[in-house]
Every structure is written in C-alpha cells, then in structure tokens.
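Same chain as my last thread, 515 residues:
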Amino acid sequence: MLKTRSPKLLILALPIALLILPLVSASAIAQTTFGRSGQDGDRGREGRAGRDGQDIKIVIDGKPAAYDLSGAMGEDAEDGTAGRSANSCEQPYRPEYSLIGASGGRGGEGGNGGRGGNGGNATIFYTDMAMLQQLEIRNGGGKGGRNGRGAIGGKGCGCQEVEWRVKYCNFETERRPYNDAKAAWQYYSRETRLCERASNGFDFGSDHSKVSEYRKDDWLYRRTNQGVSHSASYSCQSGRDGGTSDNGRNGATGKYGQITLVPRLDIPAEIESDRTTIASAIGKKVGLVKNIWVEKSGLARLLRASSDVTDTYTYLQDTARLFYRVDWAATDSPTALGVDRTEISSKVNVQKAIATIQYQIPGTLEYQVIAEPNLQVVKITGGFDPSRISSLQVQTISGVGTENQLILRDRGNVRELLKETNIEVQCLSKESATNVISSVYEKRRSITFKIPPKAEPTNGAIATGNTYTLPVGRYCSPWLRADNNAAYQIAIKQTTKSGAVYDQSIDKSFVVGKN
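reply #2:
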C-alpha cells in the first residue's frame, strides 16, 4: 500500500493537479501582469506669489515727485518630471496563461505660476489740486509667473513573443514488483499534463516512445508518453505607456492699488455713534463726526501723464459734523416713569453722500425730533419702562362650550399707556365638531379681540384693570365639549403711542372643563 507521506508520491501527485488547468478555456483565463509598473512623475513646484507694492502716504509740496508702488512679478513654476518606465520586463517563457506588461508611470503635472503682486495703495494729501500734475505714481499689479509644463509618461513593458501555443500530453503509468523481472506490467494510473520540452523549447508531444522508469518501495514504475491530448493558445499584450500630464496655470496678474485723494493735510477723526442713559443724555449737546467718501473717475487726467494707475479713485468730499440734544418735556420725571436708566443711542448714516442721524430709542417712549439751526432736538414727551411691554400671561382657562373663557393678566399694566392691543386667539383641538379624533391638534377657528386704552373691547372681551377676559367659547364652542383635548395659540400685538409694535405669542393646551 502507498504511504501518503512519501516524498516520491507527492511528485507523482503534482501532474494530477496540473490536469485541471488545461481543461479551462483560454479566453476565460485572466491576463497576468509581468514586470513592475513605473512610478508617476513629480508635480512641478508652484511659483511663489510676487511681493505687493508698498502702501504710502504722500503730502504734496509742489515739487515733482515719482513713486513706483508696482507689484512684483510672480515667480515661474517648475516643469513636472517625466514618468518612470516600467522595469523588470523579462517576459516569462510561454506560460500557461496570457500576459500583459506593466504600465509606465504618468508624467508629473506642471506647477502653477505665482500670482503677481498687487500694486500698493497711496493716500495723497494736498491743498491745491493743480499740484497733482507734479506727481507720478505707478501702482499696477505685477505680471503672473509662467506655468510649468507637464511631463511625458514612462514606457510600459513590451512583449518579446506576442502569441504561443502550449501542448498537453497523456501519460500512462504501469508497475510490477521490483524483484520479479518476469512479472507482467500492470496498469497503475493515467494523467494529462504539460508536455515535456526540449532545451530548444519544442514539445516532445509527438514522441510516443518517451518512457521513464523509477523505483518506489518494492515496485518498479514505468511511465509512457501517449502523445498530445490537446493544446491551448495564449498571448501577450504590451503594457500601457504613461500619459502626458497637463500644464500648470499661468499666474494671475496682480491688481492695481487704490488711490485716495484728501484735499487737506489730515483726515478728521470720526465720532460715528453715541450711547447713554436718558438721565445722562438730558440737556447735553452731542456732536457726531463722519467723513463722507465718494468714488470718482478721471484720475489719469489729474496726475502726471507718465503715471500708471486705475482711472477711479476715492475722494474725501466732506466731513459731516452733526449735533443733537435730548430735552425732557414729559409731566413726570424720568425716574417717576421708570425710564431714567433706559438707554438711547445715535449713529451717523451716509446715503448718497448725505449724512443723517439715526436714533435708536425704545418704542415705549413718546418723542419728537425738531430741527433747529445746526442742531436736532429730541424732545421726549412721555413713555414707560420697556420692560413692562409684552408681559401678558394666561391666568385661567375655564368653562365648557359657549361658556369657555380665556383670562389673561397683563403684569406690565400698560393698557392705558398704549395706543391699542390686539389679541388673536387660534382655536385648536384633537376632536372635530363631529367627534372625529386626530392624533395632532388641528386648527379650527380664530377670533381677534381689540383692547383700546379707554373704550370698550371688541367681540365681548372685558377689561378690568390689567385683567382681560376673552369669551372664546362663543366662537369655538363646537370643539370645546367636555373632556376634549384643545389648545389656544395666542398672538398679541401691543402698539405704543409712538407707533412701535411689540409682538408676543403664547401657546396653551388644556382639557376642556378640567382647568
């Protein structure tokens, strides 16, 4: 009996494994790559941006002067390096599979040219515009650097032999006892494997007399080549050459610098805003200062003809000096009205080269702005502390059906201090009028109640001091049956005597009859 661990038996078993490969169609066998792919080339170094021109201030004294504030040229970029060719490209000799060569590396991309530097900015002070003709300024942007060029790719592995055929032979093995030369040979096994090759590469597939004998244990084995069983064709495809990469981008040209003309020897310091409490502001004259700048064209005509500048420039047209004062004209003092610590502020706003004062004054204050020669007077005639506005809260919701009432309490107690209060109540419920139940609150109806400062409220509302009773049930009774799940969305608008509107919203859900 054969021993499974015998080294000679493993040699015999090897052709049995090879027997499977030739039975597979050559077209179904994937190509195997030979050689090592080339590395991609390196990207070219980017060009550095050019230096920006210097920013300066110039005071014209009537003497000729020239200033070169041009931006510097951007640096050129470097070219990419070539891709490396594939290597170790020796093609295996007629293997039992198709081949494809390794690819060459892609060329490196060219670097981008450096951006040109921007021209410097110049602020020019003068008292006589004619003196500008003595001044030459060059503040154009620098030219961008040149781009780097993309590099070529490396070569792929080539094929020495494009097509070949491989033959497979049948081998039959017989055996007899080693010590009995007269014993008859007995059939042992049959196998199909690659035909043996001579040193010149040709197959011995047609040599039927090729016989080999070998001993193993007490047996003598004889293996005979029975001839070609079948053959298979294979091919080699050269590796792809690496692609040529793209060139980099040329650097952008820098921008022109800005020119500012100031028809005086300095730029006035600005005071654009002020903020203080009413107690501190009363009777104090406040001055605000704002420079008015405009954009103009025609700079090239103002400077020496050899100048290289953009045609537009910024011009200090005027300096606005505005004044205002806060006067107290209410019967009660700021402390008595609770507004002495209330802050008011002002800010200069410029539109179309005209400066005006914008006031930020709480809407709970009543005031007028009166124009006097070179002065605005802000006259405060009344008001109340802004913290008292938008202070309504739900006190109770009670009753079923038409008896349902929503009671609100105004903690700020400002009804008589307002121009009007509007309260919109949106009724929502989960149960419809026909008792269809929803999983969410559905909007049903809304009603608005107006609460004037002295007259009777609308739609049946009752105002008693700072308490407002709203008969919502009269309008939403179909959805306010006992034990229904309902909700009110309350939108409140309080309008002050100065016309400011303060909004407040309250959402309240409840079970009808259980509040």
